[in-house]
Amino acid sequence: MVAGSASGMNTTARRHGTTRRARGTTIGAPRARRVVPFVRTVACLLRAATAAVVPVACGGRDDGARDTVAARAASAAATPAPLPGRPLCLGTGHWEECTLPDRLERAGLVPIPKDTIRRPWLAVPGRTWQLYRGTLHVFRYADSAARARDLATLDTLRGTPRGDTTVAWGAAPVTLLASDNLLAFLVADDGTLVERITLAITAGPTPKAVVPGRP
User: Mind listing the domains of the chain with CATH numbers?
Assistant: First the structure.
């Protein structure tokens, strides 16, 4: 009886020139939680800016909010207008002392400077910045070559020396960011914050400013 019914349904389908296909959906199964693929976006941006991150596939669905943040980061990097109440941070084509806080503020963040930080496996001292739901440790080198030498010794998943599992930056996940002469370790588990800071840094340092009368 069942076989006969199936045969009749197939005959009807062929008569109407249609073919039924399984949708691959299990009725009643719980819907998978959608995770914004910022990790893939971060990886693509980091590769474009010669930043270090474990290689992952690029792509994913575009998101309007992500586009807005990316556009703001790119604009901040290319258009260094002075912020209210602060002197203009002139671009040199590299990360200077004023560049990072200036960039983060233009991205809508409020970086609070903390203590100088030192790590024995890094050649230069750094500065810690407290951000909403996250901490950013930043190390500024004389040039990109010096930064690359230190980066080459690190486990890019942990942000610590390769093979050393005894040290950590904190309880939250660490995101390692590299741009020109800057090496940064973002300790945060807020995906939106990670994405905003990543976009702000991987936009690169402010281009060298053209000042009338100066070479």
Answer: 38-202 (3.40.1000)
pLDDT of 180 reads: 98
> Which residue stretches of 59-112 are H helix?
64-78, 99-106
Find where tokens 């233009």 sit.
Answer: 106
Alpha-helical segments (H) within 160-203: 191-202
C-alpha to C-alpha distance for 126 and 117, rounded to whole angstroms:
5
3-state class (DSSP) for residue 30: coil
Burial 103-120 (b: 16+ CB within 10 A, else e): bbbbbebebeeeeeeebe
Per the rule left: phi > 0, alpha: psi between -120 and 50, beta: everything else, 205 is: beta
Cα–Cα distance measured from residue 95 to residue 99, given in angstroms and rounded to the nearest whole number? 6
Sorted by sequence, the CB contacts under 8 Å of residue 70 that are 6+ apart come out as: 199
Burial call 147-169: b when 16+ CB within 10 Å, e when fewer: beebbeebebebbbbeeeeeeeb
Q: Is the pTM of this model over 0.85?
A: no
Structural contact between residues 197 and 109, judged by C-beta atoms closer than 8 angstroms: yes
- Between CA 126 and CA 134, with CA 128 as vertex, the angle to 5 degrees is 140
**Helix, strand counts (H, E) of the chain:** 6, 7
Place of tokens 């486990």: 155
List, for residues 107-163, the tens digit of each pLDDT value: 999 999 999 999 999 999 999 999 989 999 999 999 999 999 999 999 999 999 999
